[in-house]
Fold:
Amino acid sequence: MNGKTTFDKKERFLHFDILYSTFSWRPEAKSTFRLNKNNYNGLNLITMKIQLNFKCINEDYSQEFADQFHLGKESENNSKYHWEQSFEVPDVIEVSKPEEPFKLIAELEDGTQLQKEIDNVHILRLKFDDGQKKDCAVSGAILKETNAAYLEKEGTKCFYFYLNEESKALEVLDGVFLTEEDAYGEGFVVV
Structure:
């Protein structure tokens, strides 16, 4: 196979993977870190714990209804989010937000590797104490807003991604939510 290839959503990939670059910056020194017992290239590294939170906003949520009937809290039939997903990532040494196209790699059952660069994707890149990197990403078409907070008591840096309800988010990897058009369709090139 040479050139561009088109796949529809029924095509089965063995796995998606991500191609990384070396762009990164150190987190602020004010954050509380713990010293990693392992060393990397002969150096002791300072690591942190990251919490990633993805929430799909329910546009029908009514705070007025919650105030009137549920003491200001959401209820089963009046929830703020359609779904929420959260996970913690330990041993992170760097966090960056690169302004570059997201690179999605797919492998077909026959072992053929394909790659697609996707523009308009919010990327949060994590680098680990063993040198590996992981991109968490959300297509701009489904991202309403992002926030970050530091939980000092737990020593955790939290990142929040709020997704629009209108466009359906397809989770291709843990922490990677793309539109169906971004995850499938045209633009894959054999690598």
About this structure: The chain has two helices and 14 strands. The first strand starts at residue 4 and ends at 7.
